[in-house]
Amino acid sequence: MPVDPFKLNHWVNARKLTPALLAQHAGVSPTDLQALLDGAPVADDVIASVATALRVSTAQLETTGASGLTVQWQSAEDLYASRRPIQRDGIHFYNYYTMAVPHGRVAPVILDILCPADRLPALNKGHLEPAITVNLGPGDIHGRWGTELNRDTWQTIAANTGPDSWIIGESYVEPSYCPHTYSLVGTEPARIVSYTGQANLGGLIDDLNLWADPAFDRFTKLIESGLPPAEMAGLLFGARGYDEASAAAAIGVSEADLAAALADPAGHPGLLRELGATLGFDYRLLLPPVRRHDPVGKTYQSLDATRASVRDFLGYRVASTASAPHLPDLIGLFVQVSGEAGGVMAEPAETHYLILDGELTLEWTDQDGRLRTATSGPDGSAWVGPFVAHRWTGDGAVLKLSSGMHVGVLDLIELSNTYAPATTIRRARRDTHGWGYDS
């Protein structure tokens, strides 16, 4: 098993061990341990002994992904070769195809919609990851999001047969565990792209799976209300040994003033900021989130709304897919490319592209600073890493999708709270320093 030397070094530091002490506790030779810290291969039993001594699993030390990867490119032919026929409800329901993606990363999938128009499509059970879904046409499709059919749970997702053909179809954003399914509207074939982005709750869910049942029940009862400001404040206060009376006293206001601020956070930002500074928490947790969705949780966008968003950006013509403020890491853009006019982009999060029309060339700077290019027609796709400089040339259109797989909203919040963030990140990246007690 390949071991990531930086993960290993992190755990050595976190456990407050020197390499010599770790080798002794693990019962391995100092030479083998140094080989691991240098990224050299050693026997699996050595890795297992080191993991046991560190009180971690071997999976927590394993290398994931490719170091220095900037772009993963995939031809249309490779997309088609990834086809998986799916049987559901006794019929050939979908064909799935996977877009370009590095090992270990979430990728968008393309689905051929095969359920005929005269059949009510069977619902799936949803999934943890929220998603953007876009109709790629050429036909319209029906979307279903519930057992009882109404205007929220049964809706046409239209393909674009009018102007601005580079805006290929309607789109929507779905939340975690939203049941959904699709069927054709007529006899014309249709496809969708479904982008299941990283779930920010994923790490918490992994941990919740290990909790005792009484603790989990207590937690779920706490968040049943959705954690409005007063409930959130109670959680933050209690963890720090405060109640509302002592919290109010700590900043020299009355309980009534504090209650008023929690009832109307937007009207009392100064008080809440002082409260967070004094008690030691991020006051932004007391500001209520902005939500925009229908009764089943989805956020839909029509073709007219997408056309209304058309604008110029860095030499491209762009239009937004559906988006939602409560799912801020899920971002989609239709991008029209015209000749050599397109400027250089360097996105904060990983980005997926699907070529929709024309023949387009992606240019990017690789890890050695060299200019690289790849060219494809429709259904070519690319994954571009965070802050990798790149641009598109040619004549055609691409669909651009991104999620919070670094750098996302949670990362930005944490960075905004970090003392000397640039210094911290520079030190942390590929850190091989010991914790300072080596002889």
pLDDT under 50 segments (min length 5)? none
State Rg: 26 Å
Give the CA-based shape.
globular
Biggest pleated-sheet summary:
8 strands, antiparallel
Helicity range: 25-40%
Task: Calculate the terminal CA-CA distance, rounded to whole Å.
Answer: 30 Å
Which range does the strand content fall in? 25-35%
Structural class: alpha+beta
Mean pLDDT: 94
Number of helices: 14
**Number of DSSP-assigned strands:** 18
Account of the protein in words:
- The chain is an alpha+beta fold and 439 residues long.
- The protein has 14 helices and 18 strands.
- The chain has helices at residues 5-14, 19-26, 30-37, 44-54, 76-81, 202-208, 213-223, 229-239, 244-250, 255-263, 269-279, 303-308, 409-417, 421-428, and strands at 71-74, 84-88, 91-98, 109-113, 131-138, 141-144, 154-157, 171-174, 181-184, 190-196, 299-301, 311-313, 316-320, 331-339, 351-365, 371-376, 381-384, 390-402.
- Strands 1, 12, 13, 14, 15, 16, 17 and 18 form an 8-stranded antiparallel β-sheet that branches.
- Helix 2 (19-26) packs across helix 4 (44-54).
- The protein is globular and about 70 Å long.
- The two termini are 30 Å apart.
- The model has no long low-confidence stretch (mean pLDDT 94).
